[in-house]
Amino acid sequence: ERINTYANLNHHVPVVQIYMDQSKDLLFDYRLSRESIEALMTLLRREKTHGWVQHMEVLLVVYWLAHGLSYSVVSRVFDVPKTTVFNIVHRMCEAILCPLEKVIHFPTQAQCAEVGNGFHRLANSPAFRHCVGAIDGCHIRIKAPNSPHAQDYLNRKLFFSVQLQGICDSFGKFLDIFVGFPGSVHDTRVLRNSPVF
């Protein structure tokens, strides 16, 4: 008979207490709604024979992604060893990437009319009825790379970054993402090099 051993949630950790209280809003601490976190937990559900409970792993990695903190800081926030934070972050980020195409994809032909009507309502103009996506980019702050090409990552706002190009539908759902170009690259060049172009 196999014995399941889990490292449980520490209910005395403030960010875990916030999650456990169903009346609390999670947006400030996790930058995701409770529904989004629960959906992520469902998407990543798997049978485990040992290790941390899935709730702890998902909460920890979402918190780490939401705040861009070091492993040491997240270790103190969740009261777990720094090596555990490192292992959970890397394992869970890989797990999140696996079902990416199931979650982030363009609408089907049948869904395009609904998305277009959503843009029509948002813009209050029938001209947007045939729109299926809104595109924009943002800079994701990084530490200055230790390489001869470090200046390529210095953006026009004078901080080091990589660029994220995203396309969303009228409901705010991502349809496409493209990330990785250095911060100094113009948005047009990012678009021209993205698979969607």
Automatic annotation (TrEMBL):
GO CC terms: nucleus
Localisation: Nucleus
Coiled coil regions in record: none
Pfam families linked: DDE_Tnp_4 (PF13359)
Cofactor(s) the protein needs: a divalent metal cation
GO-annotated molecular function: hydrolase activity; metal ion binding; nuclease activity
Keyword tags: Hydrolase, Metal-binding, Nuclease, Nucleus
Residue ranges annotated for the DDE Tnp4 domain, each copy included: 135-196
Family per record: Belongs to the HARBI1 family.
Protein name, per record: DDE Tnp4 domain-containing protein
Organism name: Pogonophryne albipinna
